[in-house]
Each structure stands twice: as structure tokens, then as C-alpha cells.
Here is the input.
Amino acid sequence: MSKRFVGIDFFCGCGGMTAGLLKAGVDVRLGVDIDPICKDTYEKNNGVPFECADVRTNLRTRITRALEKKHNRPVIFAACAPCQPFSKVRKSGVKKHPDTNLLNVFLGYVLVFKPEYVLCENVPQLESSTKGKRIIKKFLKSLSACGYKSDVGVVNAADFDVPQNRWRLVIMASRVRNVVKVPDGPTAGAQPVVREAIGNFPPLFAGERRDDVPNHWAAKLETKNLERIRAVPKDGGDLRSVTMRLRPPSRKNFGHYGHGGFFDVYGRMKWDAPAPTLTTRCNSYSNGRYGHPEQDRAISIREAAALQTFPDNYVFHVGMQNDAAKLVGNAVPVNLAFHLAKFLLNGR
Ligand SMILES: C[S@@+](CC[C@H](N)C(=O)[O-])C[C@H]1O[C@@H](n2cnc3c(N)ncnc32)[C@H](O)[C@@H]1O
Here is the structure.
């Protein structure tokens, strides 16, 4: 029993948060997620049982059982409630989305079990919508009434040993510490870059799946997109350098240059910079700056996983490439979870 803490991971997905918690010395006893496709990947890589359930059902008995025989070790509850309702790429109104209150559902479990530590991760847009602000305020107020000290802050994963710019809202709380502070600057060294993460994987063609490297699968490209990526300059180029004929209708009228995200789609990553934020479509050339820095294809699932700091032997046990991309893009980068947990649990 070398692990000093015991944990439960709510909304565990394929296990990015869990893998980081395990690395930080947490004996994770259970992961809960509504999506059955996460199960094999979660359990086989982490050796932690997966409960396929909606957190809105009553999971108290299951959680009580998971926390048995913890031998007085402090408990951490982690939660990455789904971010879609608040994410930048979502156009529909916040109010309509049924997942909006899942943070409150998680709060219900915290108030019942009173874990010593709480760690939440979400998209920063949670804090910038009126409804999101209200949800956070209520969450922190309820924690405070229950004796928790807490802090909320926005961090960039690139400052936590992750080769990716990925801004996230973090909530930390503890009822056994007098001071709780979300780190406001780098906790690791210099920001790692794309080259360090994916520079050594064997080359691939668009549409190729290699069996010798797990999940080194690249999406097929239709003829037009192959033409586009061949024309986009290596190492950070984008559609601004290609002829009008090759630009898709939605990207023809560049008008004002300088609106970053607009040019990212169909772009290539830069070797010596952190990657852009990976999403659930991170294997798709037409969904972001997901072009390989020099090969004529989008990044493979394995490369996306490496940019999320999953170890190379973390296998995604799903048949469909788009399912694997969803699991990878949704995950909390392992190193971000590790550094945040270490910071919260060790008080620094
Ligand atoms: C941002 S992802 C979590 C990523 C995960 N923590 C990781 O590090 O890999 C959010 C997860 O919430 C799950 N989810 C959504 N609604 C849920 C619900 N009502 N109950 C349980 N899980 C839910 C989704 O299936 C998704 O896997």
C-alpha cells in the first residue's frame, strides 16, 4: 500500500485524470463514466474498475464500497464534468444543454462523502458565461459552508509539462488545509514542444494504420484535402499560402488576416512550439490545425495521445478511429492531472 491517498474519478473517460492521479500517489479505486466505449481503455491501462453509469443515478452504495478499507488515508474526488455546454466551438445556448448541472450533481457526492480533497477541471468558458459563473459560485459557496477552503483559476497545460496550449479552468478544494491555491504559473520547466512528443514516430500515409505502434492510425484524406495539405508549407503553414482554388468556400474570404482560429483549420502544427488545443476531432485535418508538421496527413491517434502526454504504451481499445479521437481529445492531459494533484495534495 505505497499510495498515500485514495481517489474516485467522476467523468473518468478513457483515464487521463486517473493516470495522472495514479502517478501522483493516489490509489484510484473507481472511475465513473456514462460512455461504455471508455471501459476497456480505462481498465486495461490503469487497472482501476470502471462503473458505466450516469452520475445522476444514485451511486452512493457503489462509492461507499469503493472506499472500503482505505485505512485512514485521505480521499480525493476528481471531476471533469463534460465541457461541451461551455466550449468555444459550441454555438447553441448554454441553457439548452442537459449536462450543464453535472458539476452540481458532483457537488452532491462531495457533500455526502466529504473527501479531504476535491479537484475539478473544465473549460475556461465555464467562468465567462453568466450561468457558468453562477454554477461556480454556488459550488464554492456550498464547499465553504461544509468547511472547505478552495480556489479557482485558469491554467495553460503547456506550463505543466504538456506540449499543447490547452487553457483550463481548475477548481481545487480541501477541508484539511488552511490554504488552497491553484498554481498561477509554471510548475514544470520550459514548455515542451511538438517535436519532443511526436518527432520519433514512424512515418505514415493518410489513411494508413500501422500495427507495430499502438493506435498509430492516420485518417484518410479526400483528394481535395490531400492537394491542400501538399500545398501548405511544412512546419506551421496554413491556407494563407495556398491558391484560392484550393481554399474551401468557408475559408476563401480571408479579408482581415490575424483572426488566429480562422487560419488554423487545414493548417500544420509547428515542430518547435506547443500543439494547439486538441479536441474530439483531433485526427481530422479539416477540424483544426491538426496537420502533421511535415507529412501530408493529419496527426495519428498515437501522436494525439502523445500530445496529451499519455505514455506510448497506453492503448486505446476501440475499433473506430473517430471513437479513439474522441477519447483522446476529451481527456485531461496526464501530466496536467499529475502536477495539479501533486500541488493540491502536497500543498505546493
Ligand atoms: C471531459 S470528459 C472527461 C475526461 C476524463 N476525465 C479524462 O481525463 O480522460 C467528460 C466525460 O463525461 C462523461 N459524461 C457525460 N455525461 C455524464 C453523466 N451524466 N454521467 C457520467 N459521465 C458522463 C462523458 O462520457 C465524458 O467521458
